[in-house]
């Protein structure tokens, strides 16, 4: 699995990716994610959007943050830490273990501390999203009792 920055070469391909209809309430569209990345960057915060590539083919999207973006919903753990802000595998490529491969590639990348040192990576997910909860737990993320909006927060030491 390879992470490639979203740029003018892959922007529209990334925007066209989509999850299954039954998953759309669990993850924002990539268009919304990229708009949020722009807003974060223009506000002086950090957003790192990437396309996920398997054997040279775009199969998903992932986005990281670092520190707070001051949106009013962040948990305390956000301060000075990395966030796995978005992760999606396109519906055509689901069921092949690519979510796990994406998580492994993501954690490998974050352990290089691209924006600075951090103690952990945090993420959040809808309580009803049992597939995400299972994946994140299997990767070592532990719920810390915080919430982000209405989502459960889980943390992994880096």
Structure description:
The chain is an alpha+beta fold and 158 residues long. 26% of the residues lie in helices and 32% in strands. The chain has helices at residues 11-16, 30-42, 98-110, 130-138, and strands spanning 2-5, 46-54, 57-66, 82-89, 120-125, 142-148, 151-157. Strands 1-2-3-4-5-7-6 form a 7-stranded mixed sheet, with helices on both faces. The mean pLDDT is 95.
Q: Any chance you could write out the topology, listing elements then pairs?
A:
Layout lengths: L1 E4 L5 H6 L13 H13 L3 E9 L2 E10 L15 E8 L8 H13 L9 E6 L4 H9 L3 E7 L2 E7 L1
Parallel strand pairs: 4-5
Antiparallel strand pairs: 1-2, 2-3, 3-4, 5-7, 6-7
The string of secondary-structure elements, in order, is: EHHEEEHEHEE
Low-confidence spans: pLDDT under 50, at least 5 residues? none
CA radius of gyration is 14 Å
- DSSP strand count: 7
In percent, how much strand structure appears in the residues? 25-35%
* Major sheet size, sense and barrel closure: 7 strands, mixed
Number of helices: 4
> What class do helices, strands and sheet pairing give?
alpha+beta
Sheet with most strands: strand arrangement: 1-2-3-4-5-7-6
User: Roughly how much helix do the residues carry, as a percent range?
Assistant: 25-40%
Shape: globular
Query: N- to C-terminal separation?
Result: 20 Å
Task: Look at the structure and give the mean pLDDT.
Answer: 95
């Amino acid at each position: 699995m390879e992470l490639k920055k979203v740029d003018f070469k892959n922007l529209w391909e990334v925007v066209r990716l989509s999850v299954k209809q039954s998953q759309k309430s669990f993850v924002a569209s990539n268009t919304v994610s990229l708009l949020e990345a722009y807003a974060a960057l223009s506000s002086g915060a950090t957003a790192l959007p990437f396309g996920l590539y398997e054997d040279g083919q775009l199969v998903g999207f992932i986005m990281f943050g670092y520190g707070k973006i001051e949106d009013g919903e962040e948990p305390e753990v956000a301060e000075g830490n990395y966030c796995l802000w978005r992760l999606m595998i396109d519906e055509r490529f689901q069921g092949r273990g690519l979510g796990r491969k994406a998580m492994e590639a993501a954690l490998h990348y974050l352990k290089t501390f691209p924006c600075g040192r951090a103690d952990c990576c945090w993420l959040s997910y809808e309580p009803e999203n049992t597939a995400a909860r299972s994946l994140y737990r299997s990767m070592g993320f532990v719920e810390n009792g915080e919430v982000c909006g209405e989502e459960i927060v889980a943390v992994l030491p880096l």
